[in-house]
Amino acid sequence: MQEIRVGLLGFGTIGAGVVRVFQHNAPVMSDRLGAVLKLARIADLDITTDRGVEVGPGVLTTDANQVLTAPDIDVVIELIGGYEPARSFVLKAIEHGKHVVTANKALLAKYGEEILAAASKKGVEVMFEASVGGGIPVLSAIKENLCVNRFRSIFGILNGTCNYILTRMTDEGADFAAVLKDAQQKGYAEADPTFDIEGVDTVHKLAILIALCYGTQVDQEQIYLEGISQISAVDIQFAHQFGYKIKLLAIGKEVDGEIEARVHPTMIPQNAPLADVDGVFNAVRLVGDFVGPVMLYGQGAGMDATASAVMGDVMAIARNLLKNAVGRIPAMGYQESAINRRPIRAMNDIVSRYYLRFNTVDRPGVVAQIARVLGNFRIGISSMMQPEGCDADTVAIVIMTHDAQEADIRSALAEIDQLAVVHKPSHFIRIENSIE
Ligand code: HSE
Fold first, then answer.
1. For residue range 256-305, what is the model confidence (pLDDT) as tens digits?
2. Catalytic residue among 205, 245, 247, 253
């Protein structure tokens, strides 16, 4: 049987998962491929720590060049993460004619254009299914099965760490810091967990989804970002009372020829399927003009699920190699000549419903003052709640609005924060009702 040889860069959690796939499922892979995949080499600076998996003699090396430039390696898996040396290594592998599989969303979001241009010039494949949604095959679904559709919207729960934290805060009233520590211990969080909780990891993933769905390059700086560190238990409780859950959502939409690209905590109806996506699970809801809504759900992080996606890409490349069909499906799903730069909608122009929370003194006329400002900015109130204050001085006023423009909300809140009866800052969370 023909042999296709694989080199692995980075022997961390996911790397160990890749080794486990080779150990446990080699027969399944060769039965499906009609050839043998061999894990020929693993390069990491640390080759002594026990990863709980067995590696054959001579496979481990501290010299990355034994993967990047070795003539006997066909496919390089990059699982180092971060920007450097991952970028240089990937470019070097391409230069030496290797096909590349990576799970590195940060690298793709920042250097994807450069890497894909180099791969195209060299005639090699770069695949990155594991970079978005862990084990969920969302990128191949967009590029292959759904490829006749124009996408109206993307809604994603794309960070397992954030979803795990929000779920435990919602279900147990758990403390943010303790849950984060637990997520780190379970291996879900990035090396720098601020990438998770401040939404940067979700931005990287949304940039990739938008590129594939809309055939447009979007710089990560163009994606509006708010993480979950400002979400408090009180907002989670109020959301529940109004029939909503708070999730960190990645949102991409095509609106009047512009692309909305944003990541922020979002209230979604408790009966929306995305509201049931709990713990480390991820989900992506896409709406295509022909297929309608499609939701993909699965484990968004973790050793085995992510290794499944990585090795799925290796199998896809191996199949193309065996059939002389390298490049059959373009890396971004669009022909290079068709990829352009679409305008990204300014955040001030988006229209949404909003949850507003004010801390005020408990005195007659306060609600009227707030309502007057909202009215002046054309913001309609759909619902309101004012639980009895826990102390004599402060009371929470919670307002759900009708559709309003973001610029009006921000201006109104700035004005309300100037009222003598309001303890600033006031808080707002966007509400998404269109995903039921
Ligand atoms: N830190 C990421 C998460 C890992 O928590 O989802 C998968 O990309």
1. 999 999 999 999 999 999 999 999 899 999 999 999 999 999 999 889 99
2. 205
205 catalytic? Reply is yes
Ligand 1 closest atom vs CA 158: 6
Instruction: Name the CATH code of domain 3-135+303-338 (choices 3.30.390.50, 3.40.50.720, 1.20.120.80, 3.20.20.100).
Output: 3.40.50.720
d(CA 436, CA 432): 9
pTM: 0.95
- 25-84 pLDDT, tens digit each: 999 999 999 999 999 999 999 999 999 999 989 999 999 999 999 999 999 999 999 999
Whose C-alpha lies nearest to ligand 1, atom 8? 301
Cα of 20 vs centre of ligand 1, distance in Å, is: 20
Ligand 1 interacting residues, C-beta cut-off 6 A: 134, 159-161, 188-190, 196, 201, 300-301
CATH code of domain 347-431? 3.30.70.260
CA distances from 275 to 128, 244, 279, 329 (A): 27, 8, 11, 33
Specify the DSSP element, H or E, that contains 288. Answer: strand 281-288
Query: Which ranges of 200-350 does DSSP label H, i.e. alpha helix?
Result: 200-214, 233-241, 303-322
How many Cβ atoms sit within 10 Å of the Cβ of residue 212?
25
